[in-house]
Specification:
Layout: E1 4-7, H1 9-14, E2 26-30, H2 31-40, H3 46-62, E3 71-73, E4 78-83, H4 99-112, E5 117-120, H5 124-132, E6 136-138, E7 154-159, H6 161-170, E8 172-174, E9 185-190, E10 193-203, E11 208-211, H7 227-237, E12 243-248, H8 254-268, E13 274-279, H9 295-302, H10 304-316, H11 325-334, E14 338-342, E15 354-358, H12 366-373, E16 381-386, H13 402-410, E17 416-421, H14 428-436
Parallel strand pairs: 1-2, 1-5, 2-4, 5-6, 7-9, 12-16, 12-17, 13-14, 13-15, 15-16
Antiparallel strand pairs: 3-4, 8-11, 9-10, 10-11
Helix pairs in contact: 2-3, 2-4, 7-8, 8-10, 10-11, 12-13
Length: 437
Amino acid sequence: MKKSFVLDTNVLLHNAQALYAFGDNEVVIPIDVLEELDRFKTENTDLGRNARATARELDRLRAKGSLVEGAPIEETGGSIRIEMKSELCPESGLRQDSADNRILSVACRLKDDGKTVIFVSKDINGRIKADALGVKAMDFEKQKVNFDAFYLGWRTLKLKGVEIDGFYSNREMPLPEGDYYPNECLLLVDEGDEKHTAIARVSLKDKKVVGLTSAGMRPWGISARNMEQEMAIDLLLDDRVQLVTLVGQAGTGKTLLALAVALLKVLEEKRYEKLLVSRPIMPLGKDIGFLPGSKDEKLEQWMNPIFDNLKYLMTRHRLEKGNSVDKMIESLIDGRQVELEALTYIRGRSIPKQFLIVDEAQNLTPHEVKTIVSRVGEGSKMVMTGDPYQIDNPYLDSSSNGLTYCAERMKNETLFGHVMLAKSERSPLASLAAELL
């Protein structure tokens, strides 16, 4: 039996291709959804772009059939139509002055007409209200991952003690049977003595387990404080791994490690021409409104967490004695060795021979991450960091944000590496807060 999927506005603002994600079923767009999309279409944001893309797709489908009666979708065998009626369901208790309620009422009325209806929304409250009205509701699942089974980037491998001794001697060993991912890290554990361990990495190309090439290295004075940080530093230092995702809670060292390796690669090894750092402009708590000044002056407020890490690194690794840390950072920015940029301005750019760090990437949609990664030019490396438990975007969660989606989709690629960091190393208090609060 064919189903009728009633789409909420936020689904199409999240991904315009959602129109084609429901197979051979009927997709219903309430007229209030079109009205809301119309208010977004002039924005120079991903919401505006998705609103315009949705309008273009509907206009293309309009040429193939009536959108009121149901235009065929040749790609899926389904159909799409616009529902013009927006009256509330009798005795629903919903207020007429709410567009969200009128959109929900379309699903309610179709259910009363005997159709199998599913209301699709990224708004949790919208799904709750649908359920209260007896309408089946779901999130848009096409770009979601199972976060409970999220790829850690490493695993434990139990071996005989003699095998681990051989690995220490040769710095490599044949890859044991099993399914592995490229650049996956391994904790080798002696099955007879759990304290007898080694850290290694998978080389699928050579079908070997190889030692970490970064063992003992301290980029810009930063040394690994735990196993996951050792693994992360190894991936960050490997120029063959062009995309690295570091996921973990506050204080696990994601941004600090990425910046330390970036400064080493840009300023000392000269492997990349510059360091480009960016993060979504997504405030925590109440916004303070428009900030005065030029673009760079505005950005400085949002980039304070990056400056904090840079100052810490500069203090530990002075380039020129006698110079203040602030002057050193200012000199790097003025000399364009370090560049801070809003993600908004990365669209359309090509970024060659640069070390690019995208901080707080958990606040990006999968489409935004695709847009950013596709900007990476020849000879560049990108690192995305973030905490899926601290998401400020109201329509994203730990399973649907662009950071975790990217890690899951890219884990089979040889130019990709990933580590999920678990232990907070910022301070005993920060560690306790991350665990208990």
